[in-house]
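Technical note accompanying the year-one report. For the benefit of new consortium partners, we illustrate the data format agreed upon in the data management plan: each record pairs a sequence with a structure-token string. No post-processing was applied to the example shown here.
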Amino acid sequence: MKKIVLALLLTVVFALPAFSQMTEMSIKEHQEEGHGPGHGPMMGMGKMTGMCIEHADKFGLTDDQITKLKPLHREMQKRQLRFKADLNIAEIDLMEIMEVKDFDLDKANSAVKKIAEMKTAHQLEMLKSMKEIRSILTDEQFKKMKRMMFTKKSLVRK
């Protein structure tokens, strides 16, 4: 337990300068580069679902599939936006706790745990949505979506 607290303390202490130097604009730029909340496989699935709906004819989606996917996609978008906003607020709260030289370690610990719990809860929600979306697509449609995801990621990295 002491090792965990020590590791957490060191993480927080070394993260403080990074947080304190980041302006609102630099946080946004950092996130847009793919390092912030909402990036990675969870975010990719939401974007790919939108692209599937947008290019339904290329994926061979039926009207019934589109009708089922649209509300799921909208709900994923809403969850993602709420998550980003809540996460940003929680990170600001953590920075506020750590502003003083002799900050309250218990409060910082609690804030870090809150952030971790928020991330976990969000990923689990997205996994449920992904599973539901996957059940609507045929195997061939899912393969096309995966190929498109891979192609998009390789284009972005270049």
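Partners are asked to follow this layout when depositing records. The chain has one domain: 2-157.
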